[in-house]
Model the fold of this input.
Amino acid sequence: MLVTILLITSSLAGICLLTRTIWALGRFAYRPVKSTNVTTVPTISVCIAARNETHALTECLERVLKSDYPKLEILVLDDSSSDDTSLIIKSFAHAGVRFVAGSHLPDGWLGKNHAYQTLIQESSGEYILFLDVDTTIGSTSITQLMEQLLVHDKAMLSVLPRRNDTQHVSALIGTMRYYWELLLGTSKSPPAASAIWIVRRTMLIEAGVGLNNYSMSIRPERHLARQLQRKKLYYYLIGTQQLEIGFEKRLSSQYETALRLYYPMSGRTSIRWFVSSLFLLILLTPLLVGFIMWQNLILSSWSWLVTLIVATAFGLFTARTYGGTLRIVRILLGPFLVLQELALLFISHLTYRRGKVTWKGRSVHAQPNNHDAIQLSE
Done:
């Protein structure tokens, strides 16, 4: 009886997961638009906050400089790095990259948010594109993003990046953060990616606040997206090979990000965290039952069918967001990845409870919480 109840529960969870995955992949799919004359659109300021990024900064800037967008300014802020990050930024001055020195982190700010606020104040573009150092773009990526904004008449857009270097361990066993972000999104509270997002300047500073009201937000881009969605001014896309937007985040960085995000994503309460953890356990149940009850043809067949449903959901997402032939290996690693997510969710909850969560070496608990909403005039 217990096994039957577990299989019924896992069946419902698996069907829910598959249905939600199919809906999300269709809802946020990238659809090419008819080319527009980008020379007539406003300027874009590419803003990059760098803190100890010598491993990826050179390649990042080289990619941005290859962009075919005609009205571009590039600003990079060195956020108190202890390595040669500032030297790398300055070495690109001849190519037009502007170096911005970071300042002392004031009370009531997280490091990256304050860096972005400084970049907003230093930039002059009518659109501001925030780019993580480990995000990769192609020569036409920025142009395509602007075309999407213009055609759909939006003020903000963010992109779920692809992973193309699947030969790396960090790609094969990396976290499922973007999957959960996609599935948890709703029409009123849409997903948003911090890897690359672009927003019209007036949406940030028309009230003279910039990111001030998001100073202590772990995910400022998501909260801004939620506010703009109320006016139907926000757009979210799943990256494609044509869009050429990807990421090459190291495994250690992915773990750090997961620990910072998973507990807030689960709802910031012990009850919601428990429900999230239980859901992950339920997804693993049919696989375990299939091995234990292998002599019972009905139960084992049922178990493997549910396992196949869960694997199909994950496989659809992986096929859409991962390139290369080794993405098949990642699909096969699905049960291990779910176990990894369960462990990360538990550790995230624990570290938040203990006040040990960090962001680029800085504690996110060291300063008082601030507002997490921005007021935009109608």
Remarks:
- Confidence is low (pLDDT under 50) at residues 367-378.
- The first strand starts at residue 44 and ends at 50.
- DSSP finds 14 helices and eleven strands in the chain.
